[in-house]
Amino acid sequence: MSNDILVRTRALTVDFSCGMTFLRALDNVDITIQRGEFVSLVGVSGSGKTTLLNAIGGLIVPTSGSIIFNSICFDSMNEEERTIFRRNHIGFIFQNYNLIPSLNIFQNICFSAQLSQKSITAQQVEKIAQQLGIEDKLTQMPAELSGGQQQRAAIARAMLASPSLLLADEPTGSLDSVNGRSIMQLLRTAVSENNMSVLMATHNEEFALQTDRIIHIEDGKIIAEESKK
Ligand SMILES: Nc1ncnc2c1ncn2[C@@H]1O[C@H](COP(=O)(O)OP(=O)(O)OP(=O)(O)O)[C@@H](O)[C@H]1O
Ligand SMILES: [Mg+2]
User: Fold this and answer.
1) How many CA atoms lie less than 13 Å away from 13 in the CB half-sphere?
2) Which helix (H) or strand (E) holds 15?
3) Which of 7, 53, 114, 159 has the smallest number of Cβ neighbours within 10 A?
4) pLDDT exceeding 70 applies to what percent of the chain?
5) Low-confidence ranges of the chain (pLDDT < 70)
């Protein structure tokens, strides 16, 4: 693992308004992620994991604080610039998959790479689909797949765009342990061979223990970090 920082947050705070009051979903979060580092984010339901991934990925604008990616501060970008930056550098595996219902699985898998104008071949799509055990689903529509199969298609879509940072929100959440382990292997390979950085929210202790560092979040605050390297 090289020792340079890909992304850092400074006093990142996100408030959601709830009627007359607000809920502080992230409270002064300072984290850094190195290039080629596999980090897991753990905490109970509602602790702020998805909010942190969405804020780092530029999908929600923080109430205060900043995100510095590749030495570029998100604050200095307008929405359009953020969108383009996100397409080119950041991959998402969403908690609810977010496949495009009107595209078949093959087209869904190509989608993110095409958005960022990375050329991929049919063979690459078939190869990753095979690694994930969904090679027989490529011509089907998302609604025809099980939750776990949709999740694997969403993983293939994110991986093929080869982002510098992959934000994975419970990527093994809908999978049995065998499929979960093969996802972990795929992520680990992307980290070690392509120097991708991964921030993975997970409830799975076994998988968290396989990452380079575990960040614990509670009530929107980072309460502990355990580094393995
Ligand atoms: N759009 C929103 N509007 C209002 N409150 C929100 C919104 N999104 C999240 N929250 C609240 O922010 C807190 C953190 O939510 P978040 O989705 O980040 O939790 P999480 O750690 O990902 O939980 P889980 O493990 O269940 O996925 C929760 O209390 C949630 O209710
Ligand atoms: Mg979540």
Assistant:
1) 10
2) strand 5-18
3) 114
4) 98
5) 1-3, 229
Q: In the chain, how many domains are there? A: 1
What residues make up the domain containing 52?
5-227
Residue whose tokens read 């604080």: 65
Q: What pLDDT, on a 0 to 100 scale, did the predictor assign at position 222?
A: 98
CATH of residue 99's domain is: 3.40.50.300
Which residue has the CA at smallest separation from atom 29 of ligand 1?
A: 46
47 lines ligand 1 (CB under 6 A): yes
Cα separations (Å) of 15 from 53, 68, 107, 111, 220?
15, 20, 36, 32, 10
**16 Cβ closer than 6 Å to some ligand 1 atom:** yes
The pLDDT, as a whole number, for residue 3 is: 63
